[in-house]
Design brief:
By secondary structure, the chain is α+β, with helices and mostly antiparallel strands. Helix content is 40%, strand content 21%. A hairpin with a 2-residue loop joins strand 7 and strand 8. Helix 1 runs parallel beside helix 4 (50-89) and helix 5 crosses helix 10 (312-320). Bound molecules: 3,4-dihydroxyphenylalanine. 3,4-dihydroxyphenylalanine binds at residues 171, 173, 212, 251, 253-254, 284-286, 307-309.
Length: 355
């Protein structure tokens, strides 16, 4: 066997053993590269006598052709192997359980805010908002709450500075003042929002939510207040027959003032609203005190009206049977999974409303 044939067989057996495209590329360079063994052999042709040249050139061309064919075959092999491997690795196991994906849930308080907003929007209330950090003037003084009123006490109110003129609002009522100062009557607004008091137990949390209502116009009387609240309670709890009780009370910013209780009973461990002989307080209300209207320059000879303040977290607890208020704000995702609402879960009686 000639020397050339030996080299060729050597290379062929090397190529046979190759397992990846990179090694194959290296071998190609070793053979056909600028200093590759065949390239050098071809170069040598020039120095040979003419009679030898032809025979050697024939041999070299043959070697070139054989090696090229062999390399091409190997390239195809390697690429087929790669595809086979890929198919094997990427095989879809249709017996594996499907991948679950989680959508977020709407917090019960957000859900209730949406619901009450829709209900009051239907009867002409628009939505206002105010800041959580308030001045004592808007939170107390303008609302006819005297300096010595217990609500102003450090035990109830989170003050933000020593001079006690900045605080976390203790109710949404200051937005009544802000709204009336910035425009002219009539006013018909609701104000959902966060409120703060130093208080914490099963039904009180230091941060909670209220909905304020204010309706000021000519000839608005207590009958309108009752009608409005009846309408709201019926719609919110989705019951026709409601038992509501107006109990005389006191608020500095209303005269007369009342608290509203709603009748309920516990049946099979579940709360039933609207029947039974138990009462639960859900809101405070009254006819807006003339001093409040004077503070915001509303003419009390021409205008009067009512206001109310509802505890939104309480409403959520009652309607959706949640018994510990503190869990609302613990951000436990399991709790939210259980009590939360699907984003498109609009209760039937609000369907068709533009929201
Ligand atoms: N601001 C009162 C509270 O937090 C609730 C309230 C009572 C609001 C009577 C009102 C009202 O607007 O008229 O307890």
């Amino acid at each position: 066997m000639s020397k050339l044939d030996n080299r060729k067989t050597e290379y062929i057996s090397k190529i046979e053993k190759i397992k990846n495209p990179l090694d194959l590329d290296n071998i190609k360079t070793e053979i056909f590269g600028k200093n590759g063994f065949l390239t050098l052999e071809f170069k040598k042709l020039g120095n040979l006598p003419a009679e030898e040249k032809k025979a050697i050139a024939l041999q070299l061309n043959k070697a070139k052709e054989d090696l090229t064919n062999f390399i091409n075959k190997k390239t195809l092999d390697l690429s087929n192997k790669e595809i086979d491997q890929k198919l094997k690795n990427e095989k879809i196991d249709i017996t594996l359980p499907g991948r679950t994906y989680f959508t977020g849930k709407i917090h019960p308080v957000s859900q209730v805010i949406d619901e009450v907003t829709s209900i009051f929007a239907e009867i002409g209330f628009s939505v206002e908002e105010g800041p959580d950090v308030e001045s004592e003037y808007y939170n107390f003084s303008a609302l006819n709450t005297p300096e010595n009123h217990p609500a102003r006490d450090m035990q109830d109110t989170f003050y933000l500075n020593h001079s006690k003129d900045l605080l976390l609002r203790t109710h949404t009522s200051p937005v009544q003042i802000r709204t009336m100062l910035k425009s002219k009557p009539p006013f018909k607004i609701i104000v959902p929002g966060r409120t703060y008091r130093c208080d914490s137990d099963q039904t009180h949390s230091p941060m909670f939510h209220q909905l304020e209502g204010l309706h000021i116009d000519e000839n608005v009387n207590m009958g309108h207040l009752k009608g409005c609240l009846y309408y709201f309670v019926k719609k919110f709890f989705e019951i026709e027959k409601v038992k509501i009780r107006f109990r005389p009370s006191h608020f500095p910013f209303t005269e007369p003032s009342a608290e509203v209780d709603i009748g309920y009973k516990i049946k099979n461990g579940q709360i039933k609203i609207g029947e039974g002989d138990k009462w639960l307080e859900i809101l405070g209300c009254g006819m807006v005190h003339p001093n409040v209207l004077k503070n915001v320059k509303v003419n009390t000879k021409q205008y009067q009206g009512y206001a109310f303040g509802v505890g939104l977290d309480r409403l959520a607890m009652l309607k959706y049977g949640i018994n510990d208020l503190r869990a609302f704000f613990e951000s436990d995702i399991r709790w939210l999974e259980f009590y939360g609402f699907d984003p498109l879960d609009v209760p039937t009686n609000y369907r068709g409303l533009s929201r």
